[in-house]
Amino acid sequence: MLLNPLVLLANFILVPGLAYGSQLALGALGVTMVYAVLNFSNFSHGEVMSFGAMVTILATYWLQSIGLSISPLPTALLALPVGILGSIGLCLFLDRLVFRFYRHQRASSVTYLIVSIGVMFVIGGLIRFIIGPDDQNFNDGDRFLLKAREFKQMSGLSEGLAIKSSQAITVVTAFIVVAAVFWFLNKTRTGKSMRAYSDNQDLALLSGINPDRVVNITWIITAGLAAVAGTLYGLDKSYKPLVYLHLVLPIFAAAIVGGVGNPLGAIVGGFVIAFSELVLTFAYKKVAAYLFGEGFFGDGLLQILSTDYKFAVSFMILVVVLLVKPTGIFSGKSL
Amino acid sequence: MTFMTGENMVGGYGSANILNCCSIFVDLGEIAVVVGPNGAGKSTAMKAIFGMLNLRGGKISIGGEDITALAPFERVNKGMAFVPQTHNVFTSMTVEENLEMGAFINSGPIAGIMEQIYDLFPVLKEKRHQCAGELSGGQRQQVAVGRALMTEPKLLMLDEPTAGVSPIVMDELFDRIIEVARTGIAVLMVEQNAKQALAIADQGFVLVEGENRYTDSGTALLRNADVRKAFLGTN
């Protein structure tokens, strides 16, 4: 009778963790690439995600108004390229307007950090001007790939396993995007020149690698990743500007846990943070009831932390990693 | 008319001048060596020639063309290649990727040039898929020189290529550098091992306090009694 508790865990931890982890991984990949190439912690990344999602949502509304749909998939997937272009435009514009100035000054990383926080607030304000602070429900695709009731009927178990279509789309899209980014970084000349520039800036200049080009391509990829991550998160959990401000913390935690500057680390870090949050805030009462019988541990929910404290999990992991292994799991650059 | 000339260069970091009217030149197919005591401005002169230091005076030209105002990566396009003393390989990338990055400005096929580099440094071919950061000091220097040669330069500049390698490896590196020069490339290098370096040099420069103290052919400098006593530690 181990199956019921396992399905329970899969339903509430494994499936949501894979989806949330993919979203964090995509976000952290963007943060880590900016850190690797441009050498600063870009706190405005969460708002860039939000901006990309916003443009996608507006494009989705327009597509819906002219009656275009790719049902059962959400229309947002069709609108996603517009969102990607939107956030690429935003990032390149911000680089011209703000970051390039500090790059030419060879500003310290602390200056950059403060600047990026300023940029974060400006983008955040812009988003609230355009789309407002409220929830936007734009997911018009099929809700479920697998319904809990169907699963119960199929398996005959008393616990159900539900897979939302947005979760499946998230994992599949994230996998494709991450594979494409790794292929680009490891196999193409431009990708290799980005790694070279990140490895040794002076030597890259000596080799005739044009720094402006590397910087632009980094922004393009980062912005693209941000738009995809932001849209997937919005599809999965509904879009609300404030949420993206909060998302910056777990994303940075993910990048640092994995080893900031290391793309593979960002992916692993994303899943580490996502699963830690879920594992620590899950109420194990029902699982214990299956394993040890009802009421074995009394009436408690058997929850380590209330879900209200889920951000504390990222903070705790962040502090522990910075104390014990500041370079992260995959030994990125130390902050 | 020599291929590359840096005439009367004046410059330094901040307000102080490190180079005070220093002139360095080298011709195609020849090896020019810059020697001198610590702090004489040898490495600074190299940086100035490559455009990594703003000059307050003097002029640098290559093949008759004035390049004093060009940025380093533009000088790469003019046929210059520079191997810095330290941090001269991409440590997180494989040997092959290092060479590939060296040929970045070359949009054509690079397999042929890479094969030539592997012929020159056979050990690199063996380790082509290994990270450059995992190699020994001597092998790293070979990667560094190989990377610079991938641009098919007309002028190869080396800043202390034998720093921190064993004497045997040093001899081997010098042999390779001679081979490189024989292919018609101008080689300009700064060296601590003055005696061995001047022995293979067509042209030698002894710098002191940012000025040319002696300028002559390598063999003439080796025979010069003053140079021997003051800079080579022999009689």
Characterize the structure shown.
- The complex is a heterodimer of chains A (335) and B (235).
- Chain A is mostly helical.
- Chain A has helices spanning 3-38, 45-65, 76-104, 109-131, 148-155, 165-187, 189-199, 201-206, 211-237, 241-258, 263-281, 285-292, 310-324, and strands at residues 144-146, 163-164.
- Chain A is built from 13 helices and 2 strands; from the N terminus they run ααααβαβαααααααα.
- Chain A starts with a helix and ends in an 11-residue tail after the last helix.
- Chain B is of the alpha/beta class.
- Chain B has a domain at 1-79 and 189-235: Rossmann fold.
- Helix content of chain B is 37%, strand content 24%.
- Chain B has helices at 42-50, 72-77, 95-102, 111-120, 122-126, 137-149, 167-182, 194-199, 218-223, 225-232; strands at 4-11, 19-26, 31-35, 55-62, 65-66, 80-83, 155-159, 186-190, 203-208, 211-216.
- Chain B has a 6-stranded mixed β-sheet with strand order 6-7-8-3-9-10, with helices on both faces. A 4-stranded antiparallel β-sheet of chain B has the order 2-1-4-5, with helices on one face.
- In chain B, strand 9 and strand 10 (211-216) form a beta hairpin.
- Chain B is globular, with a radius of gyration of 17 Å.
- The mean pLDDT of chain B is 88.
- The A-B interface holds A 189, 192-193, 195-196, 199-200, 202-211 and B 50, 72-73, 76-77, 81-82, 84, 87-93, 97, 100-102, 104-105, 147-148, 151.
